[in-house]
Amino acid sequence: MATYVTQGFYGSTIEGVIPQGWIDASTLREVPDHQEIYLSPKTLTSQIIEINQRVDTADALAFHTPSSSSTTPTADDIDRSAVLYHLHDLCDDTDTLNVTNPPQPVTLPNLPQARAYRGVVALTSPRKQRRGDVGQSVGGAVAGSSAEGSLTSTTSCYYLLVRLEEQETDVLVFVNVPREEFENVGDARGLAEEEKLAEGLVSGLVEKLRIVDWGLFA
């Protein structure tokens, strides 16, 4: 069973959790200032935290599918659409995004004023056309290919989006589980355990994520 430990992000201005023993990618290579990346020492799974400009209503609604032509989008509709905006922003033009679990609202005990959503998507790419090296995946972490064949790469992405309206900021956390290392050896149990770890990590962030220093957003 996975163990999650408290971890400070962005100079400890944000506090959350990571799986015990995971590696700070910044000790291995350069990481963009708006990201923090942690890598599993045993698999290709990774955890990425991003601080992004809050998606405005007009951009979010480009991903909104109304139930009827007369329906006025609610705040919840806009937030769910903002989730899709961020997820599509991770993709290249040739990628395919399939929603596994639609974004669901969650309450963050340490950030009750924030609107937050969690869910799961599968991101599939032409393996040789993924930006960067073959070992590169969404958000800049490590990836692999799926059992669909050597021409594609599929990653399960477990995510949490936290919308901080007053700070005009969207905090996005996603946990990437590349499937190749498990599917290529027929290890369905290993893949299930890795995806359970990812789901538990998002749950841990829902419970523990907090802003230590709001000056980060000044």
Mean pLDDT: 88
Strand order of the largest sheet: 3-4-5-9-8-7-6
For the record, give the distance between the C-alpha atoms at the N and C termini, rounded to a whole number: 39 Å
Derived structural class: alpha+beta
The residue ranges in which pLDDT falls below 50 over 5 or more consecutive positions are: 129-138, 141-149
The beta-strand count equals 10
What is the gyration radius calculated from CA atoms? Answer: 17 Å
CATH superfamily: Mog1/PsbP, alpha/beta/alpha sandwich
Regarding quaternary structure, what we see is: single chain
Q: What fraction strand? A: 25-35%
CATH architecture: 3-Layer(aba) Sandwich
Count of helix runs: 4
Principal-axis shape equals: globular
CATH class: Alpha Beta
Largest sheet properties? 7 strands, antiparallel
SSE arrangement:
Blueprint: E1 4-9, E2 14-19, E3 23-24, E4 35-39, E5 46-53, H1 57-61, H2 75-89, E6 96-106, E7 115-126, E8 152-164, E9 169-178, H3 180-183, H4 188-208, E10 210-211
Antiparallel strand pairs: 1-2, 2-10, 3-4, 4-5, 5-9, 6-7, 7-8, 8-9
Walk me through what this model shows:
This is Putative Ran-interacting protein Mog1. Belongs to the MOG1 family. Pfam families: Mog1 (PF04603). The protein contains four helices and ten strands. By secondary structure, it is an alpha+beta fold. The protein has one domain: 3-Layer(aba) Sandwich (Protein Transport Mog1p, Chain A). It has a seven-stranded antiparallel β-sheet, sandwiched between helices. A three-stranded antiparallel β-sheet has the order 1-2-10. Strand 4 and strand 5 form a beta hairpin. The longest helix is centred in the C-terminal third of the chain and has 21 residues.
